[in-house]
Amino acid sequence: MNIDLPQHLPNETILINDVMKVENGILKLQFPMNFHDCMYALTYYMKGNERCSYCSKTFPKEKITLDHFIPQNFGGPTIPNNLFPACKNCNLEKTNMLKPFYDNYLSLPTRGEKKQFLSDFQQIAHFLHRWYGFSFIKDWVEEKEINHIIVNISLNGSYKGKKYKKIKNYYKEYQHFQKPLILDHKNFLLDGFNALMFAKDNGIIEVPVIVLENVEVIF
Ligand SMILES: [Zn+2]
């Protein structure tokens, strides 16, 4: 898939311009970089940092966050296509709800009903995680053999911390990964180091990935 990109990135508007540039429709990321920081900066550049996408009110930029439209625990990747400026209230309120559920939640008139809805949603979410896997982002995801994924180990030397445990626990419960790994168009790993290590440690040969065709890591 292609991520949403501007034609070019003016130097002065991007905080981390020394590590990324857009050339001929390709986003070039200078290694080493923080992939999430790059995606956040890109999204703010394209979508602004003043107006909340949900309540439509304007805020000072320090009150604006980025919401994962498809929540991360449903596999939603950290790329501009899935990130929307949101005020802290809306982001917190939407939490891990998919948009149709959030719309239902907002339509409820009383606090009591909202509270009940959230409690019911946790049950539904459990069912969705178990049976639907990556169906919400299925057009973006493919399977790839871990042998074909290129990783620079020096960037992420240690693992088996909290993130690794989270992946392990989720996999144990649902028998699939919570999020796909993210690769550039040459299969260089951009996001998902712990998931890749978990796959290696457990003899899992193929993992779900999102290949970003218009992104390239440069050295
Ligand atoms: Zn809002």
Helix-strand layout with pairing:
Elements: E1 20-23, E2 26-30, H1 35-47, E3 64-68, E4 83-87, H2 88-94, H3 99-107, H4 111-132, E5 142-145, H5 162-174, E6 181-184, E7 189-191, H6 193-201, E8 206-212, E9 215-218
Parallel strand pairs: 2-9, 6-8
Antiparallel strand pairs: 1-2, 3-4, 5-8, 6-7
This protein binds zinc ion (ZN).
Zinc ion binds next to strand 4 and helix 2.
Question: Can you characterise this structure?
Answer:
With 219 residues, this protein is of the alpha/beta class. It has a domain at 135-213: Conserved hypothetical protein from pyrococcus furiosus pfu- 392566-001, ParB domain (Alpha-Beta Complex). The chain is 33% helix and 19% strand. It contains six helices and nine strands; from the N terminus they run ββαββαααβαββαββ. The chain has a four-stranded mixed beta sheet, with helices on one face. Strands 1-2-9 form a three-stranded mixed beta sheet, with no helix packed on it. A hairpin with a 2-residue loop joins strand 1 and strand 2. The chain is flat. It starts with 19 loop residues before the first strand and ends with a strand. The model has no long low-confidence stretch (mean pLDDT 92). Bound molecules: zinc ion. Residues 52, 54-55, 57, 86-87, 89-90 line the site of zinc ion (ZN).
